[in-house]
Amino acid sequence: MRPFTTRTGRPSPAERVRSILSAAHSMNVVTDGLHQEVHRLDGTGPMGHIHLHHPSEECPAGRTARIPVRLEFTDIAPTPVRQRLRARVTLTGVLSAPYTSDATTSTCMEFGQALLEDAEGRAFVGLDELEATEPDPLAGCEAALLTHLADGHAELVPLLLRLVRPRPDRDLVRALPVALDRYGLTLRLEHRAGHHDARLPFPTPLTDVDQAGPRIHALLAAARRSSHPNSLPA
């Protein structure tokens, strides 16, 4: 099925990459054919001890080695939807020294490119774009907000379906929130033969996490004013 489309704003590839990096708790580091899965729950994030720099810039610690490296991140939906993998991000570059996951000092990485892979396809992002982009304000709390909506206020999801255009098919089995960003809320509509995503845009992008509640309440208010009933089976 074709995805629900809208002409309003969506996160750019650079925003998606920055947001995924900032919210990640783990990454896979691949050097010399060796894989290290790195978990950091101390608030710094897995990228907390890696310094990205342009090839033209000298690493502050000097160049003691040139080790090709690949950093892999996965973005998983926090709600129990079908196909929970939302995106993959891969950073490639060159390390100035061997990487160790327990390092307490910064490891220099000469940046090559960032690759974002999601349902929309593949997009390459350069370091200048990443440095000029801020993570989504909701990146750090998106999982908590979505699970709260799905688990604590499940009765509101059928109401939000009133905003979906075109109307959900009659074979709709389940709908769950799958993504939330500064531009809007996305629902995953699951059918017997597949699924697709429906995006409910906010009137204007939010700039602070405190604006998330009012924006969602505005969607609910618009849904209550809508004329057609939801199509989700009881």
Can you give me a brief rundown of this structure?
The protein is α+β, with helices and mostly antiparallel strands and 234 residues long. Helices cover 20% and strands 34% of the residues. The protein has helices spanning 13-23, 127-131, 142-152, 156-160, 212-225, and strands spanning 26-31, 34-39, 50-53, 67-76, 85-95, 107-118, 121-125, 172-181, 184-191, 194-201.
Explain this structure:
This protein is 20% helix and 34% strand. It is elongated. Strands 1, 2, 3, 4, 5, 6 and 7 form a 7-stranded mixed β-sheet that branches. A 3-stranded antiparallel β-sheet has the order 8-9-10. It folds into 2 domains: 13-131, Pnp Oxidase, Chain A (Roll); 142-225, Split barrel-like. The chain is built from 5 helices and 10 strands; from the N terminus they run αβββββββαααβββα. It is α+β, with helices and mostly antiparallel strands and 234 residues long.
Give the low-pLDDT segments. 1-8
What's the CATH first level of the largest domain?
Mainly Beta
In terms of quaternary structure, the protein is: single chain
Instruction: Assign an overall shape.
Output: elongated
Give the overall pLDDT as a whole number.
88
Radius of gyration: 20 Å
Structural class of the helix and strand makeup?
Answer: alpha+beta
Number of helical elements? 5
Secondary structure: elements and pairs:
Layout: H1 13-23, E1 26-31, E2 34-39, E3 50-53, E4 67-76, E5 85-95, E6 107-118, E7 121-125, H2 127-131, H3 142-152, H4 156-160, E8 172-181, E9 184-191, E10 194-201, H5 212-225
Parallel strand pairs: 3-6
Antiparallel strand pairs: 1-2, 1-4, 4-5, 5-6, 6-7, 8-9, 9-10
